[in-house]
Amino acid sequence: MSSVFARRKLLGILSSSWVAQACYAVAKLGLPDAMAAGPRPVAELAAECGADPRVLNRLLRAMVSMGLFRQTAPQTYALTSVTEFLRSDVPASLRQMAVLDGEEVFRSFADIMHTVRTGSPAFESIYGEPFYAYLAGQPQLAATFAEAMNGAQVSATLALGDLTGVTRLVDVGGGSAGLLTEALLRYPALRGVLLELPEAVRQAKTTVTEAGVEDRAELVEGDFFEAVPAGGDAYVLARVLHNWTDERAELILRKVREAMTTDGAPGGRLIVLEQLLPEAEIEPGPGKGMVDLLMLVLMEGHDRTQADYRRLLERAGFALRTVRHGSGPDADSMLEAVPA
Ligand SMILES: C[S@@+](CC[C@H](N)C(=O)[O-])C[C@H]1O[C@@H](n2cnc3c(N)ncnc32)[C@H](O)[C@@H]1O
After folding, report:
1. Is the CB of 251 under 6 A from ligand 1?
2. What is the pLDDT of residues 38-75, one digit of tens each?
3. Is 333 in contact with 324 (CB distance < 8 Å)?
């Protein structure tokens, strides 16, 4: 890479948080929703969304230069295929992800020096409590978080596993039931159970009802450190374990194992969906390593290698049977384990 290109690349990286915060501002204002039907004059948008028209014009003009909006006439703007995802009403919407990233995540990263110096999450030093404990007392944030998680793509990850023959699937920490709903739609004889915190369960009710699978879905409010619903023949932990330290992750796994072996049919299996860190040196590429950094700044969790997961599963009384990798460098992998 030439030094001119390298320096330009670094400059782009250094200002990337400005672009992300500009996306946050338009998402928070609800501008993409107001522009869903087509181009709109900035004066109208400003009046509707509660912004200063001159400032909004400068904001949108800057975002045109990044390919995030199109200018269709003087002072008139339209969404691009990228900012379409900042609308609330599109499948896999990223609007609430933009809000979460622009508020609590951004504030936490602003204090990354605290994490680097002390090893403890910046989030905790700013908000005074661990991430999920804080969320429990903040209904608005809990709603934003649950919606942001629902925006994550589930189809590709679900495709990693074959649920043929499974009768009762328990998704532990399954967010707003995106993955569970996808499974229920794909397998018409399947029944599903979701274990989640209250706000996610509230949103899950809407998800399963809108998809018409509510009669096969049982939504359970609870704490996976206390107990996990018994009687499933398959349990899913999707992007849950990387939120926690090894000790806490082991406790979750033990609770799942307890549920599988109490009155669950023998032969039950556990499906863990996570991004894996490479065993050897990390290669440049999207995703890997950065989510681990996010876990470090927000909570005491971390990403793991396949060998780390094997050890963790073994300590909790599971045997790792199969591992399948999704395609693409930032895809999740599926680890299937059975009680040892
Ligand atoms: C990173 S999200 C993953 C959500 C979902 N499985 C997915 O893949 O999109 C972790 C989930 O764990 C849930 N969670 C956190 N603590 C929990 C607890 N003590 N009991 C049950 N669920 C919990 C959160 O509400 C959140 O939805």
Report:
1. no
2. 999 999 999 999 999 999 999 999 999 999 999 999 99
3. yes
Pick the atom of ligand 1 nearest to 224's CA. Answer: 20
Report the CATH number that the domain containing residue 135 is assigned in CATH: 1.10.287.1350
Cα separation, 321 vs 270, whole angstroms: 10
Query: Which atom belonging to ligand 1 lies closest to the Cα atom of 175?
Result: 27
Nearest to 198 by CA among 174, 214, 222, 228: 222
For the stretch 298-339, pLDDT in tens is: 999 999 999 999 999 999 999 999 999 887 767 889 999 999
Kindly state whether residues 166 and 139 are assigned to the same domain: no
Atom of ligand 1 nearest to the CA of 195: 21
Say yes or no: CB of residue 158 within 6 Å of ligand 1: no
Count of structural domains within the chain: 3
203 shares its domain with 329: yes
Cβ–ligand 1 distance for 169 under 6 Å, the answer: no
Does 145 lie in the same domain as 217?
no
> Do the beta carbons of residue 339 and residue 257 sit within 8 Å?
yes
Catalytic residue among 114, 242, 302, 325: 242
Same domain (yes/no): 112, 214: no
- Asked if 186 and 262 sit in the same domain, the reply is yes
184 in the same domain as 117: no
Q: How far, CA to CA in Å, does 275 sit from each of 125, 195, 253, 306, 335?
A: 27, 22, 17, 9, 10
Q: Which of 47, 64, 86 is the last residue of a domain?
A: 86
Domain containing 204 equals 150-339
